[in-house]
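Hi R.,

As promised, here are both runs. First protein below:
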Amino acid sequence: MSQAWWSELGLFLDLIAFAILSYDLVRSIDGERTAREEIYRLERKAFNARYGVFAPAAEVVMQQQEDFNARQEERRRKSDDSIASRKIWAWGAIALATIGFIMQLYGGWPT
């Protein structure tokens, strides 16, 4: 395989990595966590406001609180799994771009 082909393949790998990283940037890895925490704060305020004055029996409130906490933990777990998966894709794309760059250096610039 000639050096020109190495350069072309390296450029192609860089373009694929750029597409993956661009897509991931749009999805905003850390922005998802920030938005999630804001939603939890709003839900907590709504829950507290609903039972602030006229509260039902303590058992009902405790059951609803446990249900709320279970839903919140499930959402947090799913969100953390999503964030971890996206970070793996991002690191994979960075590795792909690095390999592509090295291939371009070996092959020289296309003429």
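And here is the second one, sequence first, then its structure tokens:
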Amino acid sequence: MRIGRKRVMGSLNPKHINSNLRHTSFKRGMVVRQKKRGMVVWGTILEKSHHIYIVELGCKNTRVILPFKNCQDRTFVEGEPSWFIIRDAAEKSDGILKSEAHKF
């Protein structure tokens, strides 16, 4: 007799981890699963610009900006995963949410 097995799979891909969130989950003051503004989310550095990083959270219509000044003198490379704190969020006229994050 064979006992049933359970398989657990892990992922570092933000699209797998944050797939249950929508871009409206990050609006200022909105409660998401008992978390408020300043929530901690898993993301990946998508690209590096002159003074900012663009962070991918795996949520459709969401762009997160991480200014260099919020990186605590740390540099990142594209594709590097990390935890981020969402500090502010604002929905633009095109329906895309633009957020500012801090690295901790």
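A quick note on the second one: Residues 28-36 have pLDDT under 50 and may be disordered. Let me know what you think.

Best,
J.
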